[in-house]
Structure formats: C-alpha cells, structure tokens
Amino acid sequence: MNRVRHALVVGGSGMLAGLSRSLLDIGDRVSVLARSAHRVRAIAPTLEPVICDYNDATALAEALRDLPPPGLVVAWIHGRAPELRRALASRVVPGGRFVQVLGSAHGDPSHPERLSEMAAATESLPITYQAVVLGFVVEAHGSRWLTHEEISTGVFRAIMADVPLGIVGTVEPWSARP
Ligand SMILES: NC(=O)c1ccc[n+]([C@@H]2O[C@H](COP(=O)([O-])OP(=O)(O)OC[C@H]3O[C@@H](n4cnc5c(N)ncnc54)[C@H](OP(=O)(O)O)[C@@H]3O)[C@@H](O)[C@H]2O)c1
C-alpha cells in the first residue's frame, strides 16, 4: 500500500482504534467516521472526527460531501447495509481502495455467498476491493476471539500486504470457533 493523501476509517474509534492510529503513518490525513467525536480525539489528536450516524443516509451524504474524496476507505459496519457500503465505496477516488472489515460469519465455509454479497459494494467501480475477515485464535486448550489489538494489527497488516482477502487469526477448522 502506497502513501495516501486521505484515508477514512468508518467505525474506527472502537476495536479499530489501533488501526486508525497506525494509518497516520501512511496517510497525510486520516479521518474517522463515528457518532462520538470525543472517542476519536482520544485515540490521537491528529485524527479528524467525521461525526454522523451512518444509518442516516442524508447525514452521511452531507458528511462525505464536506470531505476530500479518500484514496483509502476502511469500513467496519454493522449489518448487511448494501446501500451504505455502496455509498462509501462510491466516494473512493479512481485507483483507490475500499477495505471491508467483516465478522467471523463471513469466514464460514458453508456460506461463500456472504463474501460475494459484500464485494458487490464495489461492482463496476474503478477501485480495488479488499475484504478482511476477523477470525479466532486456536490455543492448546480451546479457542478464543481476537483481542482489539490483534484485530487492529491484523487489519493493518492485511492492508499493507495488498491481499484481496485477509484473514485475521484463523477460520479453520470452522468447527473450532469459540
Ligand atoms: N471475530 C471476531 O473476533 C469479532 C468480530 C466482530 C466483532 N468482534 C468483537 O465485537 C466487539 C464489538 O464490536 P462493535 O462493532 O460493537 O464495537 P466497536 O468496534 O468497538 O465500535 C463500533 C465502531 O463503529 C462506530 N459506530 C457504531 N454505530 C455507528 C453508527 N450508527 N454511525 C456511525 N458510527 C457508528 C462506533 O463509534 P460511535 O459509537 O462513536 O458511533 C465505533 O467507532 C468488539 O469489541 C470485537 O472484539 C469480534
């Protein structure tokens, strides 16, 4: 991943706080879209809060209109939300990248359609698409979910590695998930 003029992390003030901070190393400007400005500023004073409820399409359009188009958008969004995902992907500059962080259900081998449904957000757009699935960790006496630090570090590594599909932790064997 080359240096970007503007990176936008949607939902980047919770478990992805570490990712938002890391992106300051490769982005001239890094914005974080969330409802609480306070949580964004608490991560790093140089992160720019973009405050809106992403479920409010009008508020989202206004918030995005006031921003320079990003070369990189990382989206961590609840629910299927196809219109929201498409609206975000559509804002990425041509040649830029749209990264979706997806819950472990997208790694279920018996439901490959879940990943293709998410990829539809970038259909026919002149941008690169990347999915990063959050898996789990298998240990000697069982398995556990990822920590926030593991999630942020793993998503940042996947972005830097340019892989179309990144898995943080593992999704195999699927039967071992916590
Ligand atoms: N496989 C896995 O390991 C896995 C997968 C998925 C989730 N998890 C776990 O699930 C936990 C909870 O995840 P989470 O997504 O609830 O929490 P989160 O990542 O801690 O927070 C969600 C992020 O989205 C923002 N947000 C939420 N709703 C929004 C809205 N309507 N409009 C704009 N921004 C919005 C939040 O900021 P504001 O609240 O300020 O809006 C925040 O930045 C995490 O702690 C993680 O460990 C684990």
Explained architecture:
With 178 residues, the chain is α/β, with parallel strands linked by helices. It has a single domain (4-176), classed as Rossmann fold, CATH 3.40.50. Helices cover 30% and strands 27% of the residues. It has helices at 17-23, 37-43, 57-65, 82-90, 113-119, 148-161; strands at 4-10, 27-34, 48-51, 72-75, 97-102, 128-134, 136-139, 142-145, 165-168. The strands form two sheets. A seven-stranded parallel beta sheet has the order 3-2-1-4-5-6-9, with helices on both faces. A two-stranded antiparallel ribbon has the order 7-8. Helix 1 (17-23) runs parallel beside helix 6 (148-161). It binds NADP nicotinamide-adenine-dinucleotide phosphate (NAP). NADP nicotinamide-adenine-dinucleotide phosphate binds next to loops.
Binned, the helix content reads 25-40%
Q: What is the annotated CATH architecture?
A: 3-Layer(aba) Sandwich
Bound molecule types: NADP nicotinamide-adenine-dinucleotide phosphate
Shape: globular
User: Rg from C-alpha positions?
Assistant: 16 Å
Strand runs, count: 9
In the CATH scheme, the class would be Alpha Beta
**Unreliable stretches covering 5 or more consecutive residues:** none
Mean residue pLDDT? 97
Q: Strand sequence of the main sheet, in spatial order?
A: 3-2-1-4-5-6-9
- Kindly identify the CATH topology: Rossmann fold
Beta-strand fraction estimate: 25-35%
Number of domains: 1
